[in-house]
Each structure stands twice: as structure tokens, then as C-alpha cells.
Amino acid sequence: MINCEISNIEFVLPSVLLDNNFFKANHPEYNFNKFEKNVGIKSRHVCADNESTLTLAINAINKLINKNNIDKNNIDFLILCTQSPEYMLPTTSCIIQERCGLPNSIGAFDINLGCSGYTYGLSIAKAMIGSGQAKNVVLVTSETYSKYINKKDLINSLLFGDAATATLISKSEYNGIENFIFGTDGAGYDKLIVKNNFFNKATTAPEKTYSNFNVYTDNNLYMDGPEVFNFTLDKIPTLVEEIYKKNKTNNEAISKYIFHQANMMLLEFVRRKAKIDKSKMFYSLSNTGNTVSNTIPIALKEYSKIRPNNDEKIVLAGFGVGLSWCGGIINLKNKI
Amino acid sequence: MNTKKILNSIYEELEIESVKELDLKTVYKDLDEWDSMSVIILIGFFEENFSITISGETLNELTTFGDLFLKLKINDK
Predict the structure, then answer these.
(1) Which candidate, A327, A261, A258, A318, places its Cα nearest to that of A290?
(2) Cβ neighbours of A155 in B, within 8 Å
(3) Residue A212 binned pLDDT confidence (cut-offs 50, 70, 90)
(4) What is the predicted pLDDT for the residue at A218?
(5) Do A227 and B37 touch (CB under 8 A)?
(6) Which of 14-73 (B) contact A at CB < 8 A?
(7) Sign of the CA dihedral A108, A113, A114, A118?
(8) What ipTM did this prediction achieve?
(9) Average pLDDT over residues A284-302
(10) Beta-strand pair A163-172/A3-12
């Protein structure tokens, strides 16, 4: 089997920064201190009208290429993970190929996954390199959920942010990406959903409410928070055990756990149930919020800035919309 | 853990200030502090301490802590 590793990661955030104070004026009755303390999010970036999944993705790739002196001609595959594509068709990654000046010889496709998308993408990149079909894969995550969220939906507006990331995964002597585990439960498809699509988008969809602060129509994002929470607490501690088993390792050999940054409270419950030491759990959502498939690469990049310069074994786990989950182990030896 | 102790723990977890204490007759949805975050905290509390999974729907259908404990088969015996 040919090995591969994560060589570099870069991320970009859109131009509009919204801190919690921005929402206070319209919702003086909401306890923002409690939100910050429990959920751990103080601000998030969202797209301006002229920003989109495509523009963010292009900026992330250009940053990856320019900051790390990458020769575009050496890139032979592009994978974009998004649930907010630029068009129904064509595939957004095809447009990115042209706009970023990548060679016509690359393969490019989109994957439609949310919070499990980055770990899925890493596994696909590993498979492509491992089977000799590619040497340098760029995995892009770009998500603009803010465009789906009803302006009156306080809770989801507070939780989610927009972002894009670009990761270069390269053929290597070093085994940087180990084995991954996957899971799917389509019975929960409607727990996190934008019901209407390009074909049946209603111009006058009726407004609905749930809890005190969630307002949406079927054209907007709907999230059943309690059920997504229960799903995560049920599946992710078990996933962690399966990851150890699949990779013939245990928690003592793991130096860090970087999970999808949904919210602090959820991560803490998962951490305790999975018996993970607090010092090994990495959090990075205070200034970006839940950026869907972007949270893991953003957290990895942030962790890389402060991590020690030695070999580290890190557990990654993504989970959410689908319902879908995927996790595995990566090894790092350098800054990324 | 008896019901009194459980209610005291919930009082702390939910950071209740609007009433002096909780009892089995307290209508949790009427508490000033009750919001979508409280639902998640309560679900997490029962999962972590009793390995009991409650759905958001169940919390929505019931009204008092007494109803909830009855449904979850938590009592002082």
C-alpha cells in the first residue's frame, strides 16, 4: 500500500464578522452569557452578498498554493466537500479547476456531506493515493450555511458560521493517514435538513417556529437539536472505540482528539462518555462557530500552530447531517 | 440518588435563579431559564448520570419534573 500524509492546510473566513452583541439588540430577552458559557461560541463569520462557496473555495486554494509554494502542475486531484454548491449543476469543483488555474488533467468532483465530510474526504484521498491513481490531492471544504438560515432564526444564526479550507494530501513514505470507520443512519435524514431544493423552492413557504428562538420555512435550515445531540452521544463514543480497534491502538497512544466542533457542551458530554482526558481534547470554535465540514481542518491548523514538534497520533471524528459519521487516525510529524 | 438530590443537581445544571428550589410539581417549561439549551443540558444530564436517553419530543410532551421522573421510572424507592 502506498502511504500518504497531510502536507498543508489553510483556511479562509468570509468578510462579515458577527459577534454575539450583534444579535443582542433584537433579542434582549435571550441569555447570551449562558450561550457563550455552554456553547463556547463568541463570534462567527458569514458571507457578504458577493461571497459564496465558490469564492471562498478559490481563496482557500490560492492561499494553500501561495503560502506553501505548491506547484499547481503537481496537483492531480481536487475534491470539494460542500452542501451549498454554487449551482445545481455543474459541479462546483469543475469551476474551481478553471478559476484556480489547475491543470486540465486533474480529476475533480464534489461530495455532498456536512460535518462528516472532511474525514470522508481524507479517506477518499488516501484511497486514491494508495491505489496509485493520484499523488497530490487537494481536499477543499467550503460551506455557506448562513445563506440557508432564516434571519429570524436566532439559535442557528448563533451556532453556524461560514468558512472554507484547503488541505494538500500527498504521497509519502510516512503513514500519515491510517484507517477510518464510517457510519450512516438515514432514518435521521430530517433531523438536520433544508427541505426545499432547486426544483421545488417555494417563494412563499410558511414560517414555522420551534423552541422560543427558532424560526424557519422549508426553504431554510432546520435542526432538531435534541435529536442530533442524542445521535451524537449514542454514536461517537462507540466510534472512538471502533477507531482504536481498527487501528490496533488505545487512548494512551493518542495525543490529541480533534472532533467536529459542533458546540462545546456536546463535545464535553462526548468526551466524558468516551473517557477522554480533558487535556487531550482540542477545542476551536470560539471565533468561528460550527462551520460544518470546515471545523476539523480549521481546528487541525490551529492545533498545528501550538503543537510540539514530534510525531503525534490524532483521532479525528466528524458527525452530523445525514445522519452520517466518520472518524479515524492521522499521524503528524511536521507543522501543517 | 433520590429525587430531591436529582432536582438539586438539575437546579445547578440549569443555573436556575427564578425560583428558590425545584420540586416534583415544578412545571419546567414555565421556568424563566427554560430554553433550547436547557433541553440539551437536561438530556445530557440523564444520559450521563442514568444512561437514560430522553427525546426532545418527550420533554415537550411532559410538563412537570414529577411527570418526567415517572416516565423515566426514577423514584425514591
Answers:
(1) A261
(2) 36
(3) low
(4) 78
(5) no
(6) 15, 33, 35-37, 39-41, 43-44, 47-48, 53, 55-57, 59
(7) negative
(8) 0.84
(9) 97
(10) antiparallel
